[in-house]
Amino acid sequence: MTTRIQPQPGIMDIELYVGGKAHVDGVSNTVKLSSNENPWGASEKAKQAYRSVAGNLHVYPSSDHSELRAAIAKVHDLDAERIICSNGSDELISFLCQAYAGAGDEVLFTEHGFLMYKLCAQAAGATPVAVREIERTTDVDALLEAANENTKLVFIANPNNPTGTMISEEEVARLAEGLPEQALLVLDGAYAEYVEGFDGHASLVEQRENIFMTRTFSKIYGLGGLRVGWGYGPLEVIQTLQRVRGPFNVNAGGLAAAEAAMLDVDYTAKCQRLNAEWRDYLHAELGALGIACDPSMGNFVLARFGSEAEADAADQALSSEGLIVRAVKSYGLPDCLRITVGKGADCKRVVAVLSVFKEGWEE
């Protein structure tokens, strides 16, 4: 029997998002290096703040997130009224597509960009448009060429996931300047904290009316399990997104932990230093094995193998030793593996396993 209850057109065409693997059948003591999580975890201050709300779980959380917005504004020297908080930055991507794109509209993103841009555009009924990159790096000229009167949103991650590449602020400004007047440029800064001295292009957001920035607490702050994100943009955009945001979209534990994590700038700086140290180690050691990696500005490296078959075999070799990394075929990179920067011992294990693998690999 066929039901008459049907979803909106296009909904069933959306491919389900599949995150990084978390376990390997038959293998114990695994190390998860597949989801770009912070291997050093959240700061102790964030954990303490999370525990502090346990006695009030019956009370609804803040609906305006004023304390968290104030903490973000203090640390980043921003206007708290232009900050919005969310259930992870994924929710902001969804809000933006819901509010600004629909049937007949186009949403642009780079060909190896975060998969949620396409999925959220489809969910809003808009047309997703993947734009070519150059050497796994955002091509501003290609984006400007692709933009037209139907373009409503343009998403770029800087640094990009899963490639780790980054374009300059001058190039971002050129993109914003050249877009059609009805298009909003969305800068995904999920990995901004891993770039020393980088503000995620907040200064550009301050200067222009067509740029919105998203950020997350899931990466360097180690709060992926609590799902907290935030965005910064023109006041008119913030006021629009507030109208599609649920009143209690961030839970009390997430708000408390995120505020403490944001204010613990010393711990964030420590994680940035450790990540840079072991990211550079992976890049150098994999290169010495003949495995190419673009310079990464995130908390991962994209390892490029000679073929899809070699990448699959390398993935299996790592998995068999309990090292779980991310195959990125769904990102159009079938010959690559994305490897999260882990603790030092784990990075050394990755290199050791791949060294043995390369010695025995034959196409």
TrEMBL record:
Residues 30-353 form the Aminotransferase class I/classII large domain. It catalyses: L-histidinol phosphate + 2-oxoglutarate = 3-(imidazol-4-yl)-2-oxopropyl phosphate + L-glutamate. The modification N6-(pyridoxal phosphate)lysine is found at K219. Pathway: Amino-acid biosynthesis; L-histidine biosynthesis; L-histidine from 5-phospho-alpha-D-ribose 1-diphosphate: step 7/9. Pfam families: Aminotran_1_2. PANTHER family: HISTIDINOL-PHOSPHATE AMINOTRANSFERASE (PTHR43643:SF3), HISTIDINOL-PHOSPHATE AMINOTRANSFERASE 2 (PTHR43643). Belongs to the class-II pyridoxal-phosphate-dependent aminotransferase family. Histidinol-phosphate aminotransferase subfamily. This is Histidinol-phosphate aminotransferase. The lineage of its organism: Bacteria, Pseudomonadati, Pseudomonadota, Alphaproteobacteria, Rhodobacterales.
